[in-house]
Amino acid sequence: MSAVIRKLKPYYESLIEPLVNYFGNSGIHPNFITLFGFLSVGIGSVFIYTQNYFLALLFLVIGALADSVDGSLARKTGRVSKFGAFLDSTVDRFSDALPFTAFGVYYASVKDEVGTLLAFLSLISSFGVSYTRARAESLGVYGLGGIFERTERWIVLILGILLGLVKFGLFVIFIGSSITIAQRVYETKKALEDEK
User: Fold this and answer.
1) Degrees to nearest 5, angle at CA 12 with 11 and 16
2) Residue 143's pLDDT is what?
3) The pTM is what?
4) Under a CB-based contact definition with an 8 Å cutoff, are residues 136 and 145 in contact?
5) Known catalytic residues?
6) Residue 133 structural domain
7) What are phi and psi of 125, to 5 degrees?
8) What is the rounded distance in angstroms from the CA atom of residue 107 to the CA atom of residue 110?
């Protein structure tokens, strides 16, 4: 997570606190919010493919909001669990994949080779960011950061759709994710060498 996003996180959490409190008082389970968010992203991705960007944005934002609420809700209601963490991480990977896949399939259908390439490069590099952390942690290396993590990817994706700069947004996501992968590979290598 970048320094800017890290500084803004407490303000964002204070904004969503009323929503977290509402769900907590309603007895809604955090895992339900996780799955609801995934469904919203899936619907948004369908609208990406059909080029209805207004509805795509609406459902993607709802999905992103749900993703930021579920963890806070789990902590507030004492429902933090290993399975919940596993479910959230797993669903996140699919939620990351769906919009990029939708763009890739759309661009392929209209024979836009540049758009197709950018969409799938963004997909692959985004998975690379997640994989490098997971693999490093399996080797005992924790706390890996990077300039372009999941929050940054979603901000750029949503802004790209909103401003009509989808291909530029995909390019930024690919470059930012690739740099983050390189950072994590270097940090992991250094950490493992320091253990010797």
Assistant:
1) 120
2) 86
3) 0.92
4) no
5) 92
6) 3-195
7) -70, -35
8) 5
